Amino acid sequence: MSTAPVEEVHLQPSPSDGISCVRFSPDASDWLLASSWDKSLRLYDVPSNRLRLKVDVDHALLACSFGATRTQAFSGGVGGLVGYHDLEVANSTTKLGSHDKAAAHIRYSAATGQVFSGSWDGTVSAWDPRSTTQTTHLKQSGKVYAMSTKENLLVVGLSTKRISLYDIRRASAPIQDIDSPLKYQIRCIELFPDAQGYAIGSTEGRVALEYVDATRKGYAFKCHREKISESETYVFPINAIAFHPRFGTFATGGCDGMINVWDGENKKRINQFLQHQTARYPTR
């Protein structure tokens, strides 16, 4: 495992409150979109360390996503609003739709041109940004705690510890509906780059890899833990999972302030970044 230092860029000016979501642009990976609890959406040019645009809204933002290009963005907030933002126009926000409770997750599907929003009201909706109409409404068995889309698949992790997988071309019912392989609450979920499976992170410092093909056996492993003594170990929730689009390796970020990089195929950790400053909240 490598622990060599990696180059870091501290983007400025940073939000004044917690960052809820970050996304790289689909057509230029040096642009970064960040939503925050400070009621702002920010667009950064990473190489030049420049804030290109700041959009102020009237509610804390929980999620964001680019659209088909880096000039389109979408957001979801605690008030339930799903917003569309033209990133070529200052402070541009158009209501795309809304939920009864917080719109906690936003994903854009390049395969269908739809925007998917997952909410604490227990629903997932799809929106057509061209006509600002709702195209799909899916009732879930609990609050949406995690969501990811890739190619023609959408996977949803719920407060009931259920995982529902949809083919978004015919999303009236899930093609897979299972209990989470992890014992504790789902925190994040991410489809593989080839959409052959997905990774799940939980509050108990565990990650599980599951496959769309039910005949393939998945596995789980412990991570983001700190041994305090022979009898005591701190366990930290997994906050985020991100895959490399070409190599299939993936990174996990935890409440311990650590970022680990994993080779899922060979079941090993290949890198660990230096610890970042964060509020450390072990679950046990």
TrEMBL record:
Repeat region (WD), residues: 96-137, 238-272
Tree of life domain: Eukaryota
SMART domains: WD40 (SM00320)
Keyword Ribosomal protein carried by entry: no
Protein keywords: Repeat, WD repeat
Record-linked Pfam families: WD40
Gene3D superfamilies named in the record: YVTN repeat-like/Quinoprotein amine dehydrogenase
Protein name: Uncharacterized protein
Organism: Aphanomyces astaci (Crayfish plague agent)
